[in-house]
Amino acid sequence: MAQGKLDPKSIPNDGLTTRQRRMIPITAVHTGPGKGKSTAAFGMAMRAWNQGMNIGVFQFVKSAKWKVGEEAVMRRLGGLHDDTGEGGPVEWHKMGEGWSWSRKQGTEEDHAAAAAEGWQEIKRRLENEVHDFYVLDEFTYPIKWGWIDVDDVVKTLRNRPGRQHVVMTGRDADPKLVEVADLVTEMSKIKHPMDVGRKGQKGIEW
Positions of the region Disordered (predicted)? Predict the structure, then answer.
């Protein structure tokens, strides 16, 4: 990478030092119709783990039967931290099988209530600075479906204490989410093997 590639285009007149600006928490949104939104978020989480950060992952839509590859890797990294102290702790919670803290099995009928419960738990954790790095995977969907109030999300993100990074993924991100975010990436599909009838492959889709 060329030197200076990641330098900002301008230096803000905010009275902060470079070190202080590097301590500002990031709110990120990965959206768009293309592949890679969650994968990119988990890649960021792996970087955060390597820096010793406490990682909290909350999956809002994916089926409990689908064991994504990133989950296995992140759980192994969490175990490595528990055994050796390397990296940081990792928690992984899935709405589809009942949130880990409640152990309630979800059904089609109560997905909206389960999504609201998950958001309330995340709010509590943000208020208490439980994690350093949050992945809210497929979080745009329960907002789009009206299960979670986007204004409450925006207010919570704006007012969260400390240095807690939050990355949210999913298609059709609400414009208010985009506005509150510091980092927004839209994944656009140019072409995909499934366009010509090919099936998902190990190491690519899961």
Answer: 1-20
